[in-house]
What does this fold into?
Amino acid sequence: DLRNLFDSTQIATIFLDRYLVIRNFTPAVASLYNLIPSDQGRPLSDIVTRLRYSVLREDVAHVLATLEPLERRVDREDNSAHYILRVLPYREPDSTVSGVLLTFVDVSTIVRAEEALVEADVRKDIFLATLSHELRNPLAPIRVAAQLLQSSKVSSKELKKAQAIIARQVGHMSRLLDDLLDVSRITRGAFLLKKEYTDLRVLLDSAVEAVRPAMDAKQHTFRLEPPPPSPIHLEVDPVRITQVLTNLLTNAAKYTPAGGIISLRTELEAQYLSISVRDNGVGLTPQAIATVFNMFTRVEARSTVSEPGLGIGLALAKGLMQLHEGYIKVQSAGLGHGSEFTVCLPRSLIANRSDQESERPTDASGRSATRRILVADDNVDGAESVKMLLESSGHEVHVAHTGAQALAVAKRVLPEIALLDIGLPDMSGYDLAQSMRHEAWGKDMTLIAVTGWGQDSDKRRALAAGFDQHLTKPIDPARLEKLALD
It folds into this structure.
């Protein structure tokens, strides 16, 4: 009977008679609406402050009139919980309807998951639109600069300016794509740090140097509060720590009005070495602080000026700090009061000087500064640009546009280094590398894979095919020159 049902069920349930008087309720619903035993026998209207009286009254009246069950979602006023409410007619053994059963099923987890999916979808759309914008921005000056280079009326000064524009904008695009790949690797747990012993001051100076032009352009006052007197050497990935600090300083420069103040401070704490970037810029709301490290989140400046960025820099910084077993945090007193981002590295990463001396690799010496190099790429412009770059450093460079052509040229000139595109028209770069390794003249050749695919799986496949190195397009000229001389 009804009493046995209420004694045994764990479902939040209320039994109302036809006159909307509470006859019974389960412990689950008692805690939900703060009902007490003395509430039995009271009209529903007496506890209107605890129940959604108007909604329930209308629903109960409808069910009693139609004898059809009704279902709807109801939410707490503070939106902290969500329930599926079912109103069912209750029939006595003689089939007469003596009231209704109200059951409440908690669906808060499902609702929050749905809301998170909707929010993620919105952020995805914003990200794709932003990505399109960020990639188109550098393409415009590159196109204009390329047209200038083709003109016969361009002065040498304008020529150098156009070349600098192209180099700068290509570097910007490369950084965007590298950040996307880094976030993907960290998310998949496939990111590997390249740790080495590095002076903390070198890391700080490198980050400041990278952002100095942006700060100077807005006439910011920059204050560097130096690290403790004795040098601090860290066993970290210097490229990634510099990347994190550069990101924080860049954001400070973006969101601090002209003439503002930006400071960089280091402090040795009990368990961590902390590095803080503080500004007196636009600041952050509590809502922004809660989401600022989420993927694809962009904190809009409180001005009409749209700042560039994909909204992944702080998410990437958070991931890189976690890989170093550290963390990143933010503080802000609110809009207009600036913000402070702090990265914390565990003190266990501070290395002894003796450790640094024993582990430091030695440089190779006594080798020729020029190399005989083969470039195999079916993209004619790509191959010629790499050829010109390497020849400008004094290297002897030969070009091929197919795999068969590359094999013939390699057999004739016996290159010391071969840069092989993976997507050749007649064979893959993997097959070409294996064919070269099977030849006596190719066993000791340095083979470098050049491709637009930069996932860790692509690098492993390249090494398995016989390559010594893997470069992702667009190639960093400095890294290419270093590989040529190693």
